[in-house]
Design goal:
The chain is an alpha/beta fold. It has helices at 3-6, 16-22, 26-34, 50-56, 62-79, 83-89, 104-109, 120-129, 146-155, 167-174, and strands spanning 80-81, 97-100, 115-117, 136-139, 161-164. Helix 9 (146-155) links the parallel strand 4 (136-139) and strand 5 (161-164).
Length: 188
C-alpha cells in the first residue's frame, strides 16, 4: 500500500463536521496551533469547509493546516489503547489506573473492572499523589471524550496515559461480550 493510500482523505472542501468526525483530536489540535475553534470569535460551523475556516483565520495556508491535522492525528493514534490490549493489562503489576469519564448513572449501570468514576476531586488526588509513571487508562461510552482527557493528563506529565479506543462499547464488542452494551437516549 502506498503512503498516499494510507493517509485519510482530507482537502479544503471537507466540512468541519467531517474533519471532526474523521480526526477526533482535530478540535484540540486546531485550537492549540492556530487558535481556531476555542471561542466565539474563532468558532466554526459544522457545514463550513476547512478552506473557508482557513480563509477567515488570517488566510492560513490550507495545505499547512491539513498537514497539522494529519500529524496531530498520527500522534493521537499512539494514545489510543485497543480493547484487547486493555483486557491484557488487568493482570499486570501494578495494575493500570482505570478512569471512567461517563456519568455516575452509566458507571453504576455498567463499568469496567476496577475502574474509578472520574471527578474533579479524583483529578486533584491524581495531580497531588499519583506516580507520574503509572499507567492511566481513560474510557467513556464510545471513545469520543477520552482522547482529549488523556491528552490533558499527558500534558501534565502523566506520559503513560492512554485512551480506550471506542470506549466501553468497543470493549464490550471486542474484548468482553459479558459487559452489557447500551445506547443513550440522545444518541442516533
Amino acid at each position: 500500500m502506498s503512503a498516499t493510500a494510507e493517509k485519510p482523505l482530507i482537502d479544503g472542501s471537507i466540512t468541519m463536521g467531517e474533519v471532526l468526525e474523521r480526526f477526533p483530536g482535530a478540535k484540540r489540535s486546531l485550537f492549540a496551533q492556530y487558535h481556531i475553534g476555542g471561542c466565539q470569535s474563532c468558532s466554526y460551523d459544522d457545514e463550513e469547509t476547512l478552506a473557508e475556516v482557513c480563509e477567515r483565520n488570517e488566510e492560513l495556508p490550507v495545505d499547512e493546516v491539513i498537514g497539522h491535522i494529519l500529524t496531530a492525528h498520527e500522534n493521537d493514534k499512539k494514545i489510543f489503547l485497543e480493547p484487547l490490549e486493555l483486557k491484557a493489562t488487568f493482570d499486570s503489576e501494578p495494575p493500570p489506573r482505570l478512569l471512567d469519564l461517563r456519568t455516575r448513572e452509566e458507571h453504576e449501570a455498567v463499568a469496567l473492572p476496577h475502574s474509578e468514576l472520574f471527578s474533579n476531586d479524583l483529578l486533584q488526588e491524581i495531580f497531588g499523589h499519583e506516580n507520574k509513571e503509572r499507567v492511566i487508562i481513560l474510557y467513556d461510552h464510545t471513545g469520543d471524550k477520552c482522547l482529549d482527557a488523556a491528552a490533558y493528563l499527558i500534558g501534565h506529565g502523566f506520559k503513560n496515559t492512554r485512551a480506550l479506543r471506542g470506549g466501553i462499547d468497543a470493549y464490550a464488542q471486542e474484548a468482553d461480550p459479558e459487559i452489557p452494551r447500551y445506547k443513550l437516549e440522545f444518541e442516533e
